Amino acid sequence: METRVAIVSIIVENDAVICDIQNLLTEYSQYIIGRFGIPYRQRNIRIISVVLDAPVDTINALTGKIGRIEHVNAKTVYSNI
To answer: Which of 12, 14, 16, 68 is 20 to 30 Å from the Cα of 41, by its Cα?
Structure first.
């Protein structure tokens, strides 16, 4: 199956849901190339970036599941490769 490289940008506005996000990322770990998180303490938010190489349907499924978590925003940018 054809895969695409993408980055999922996640902004978390409530620390109580970090475990939910971590569980989803673990579920999709076979597709994750890398990830990093930045705690932005002045605004009390967390910023997470996840780079994936996966089928488009898989990337969309992960982004959708993360985006449905309350107090979380997620957007995806795809490469042209």
So the answer is: 68
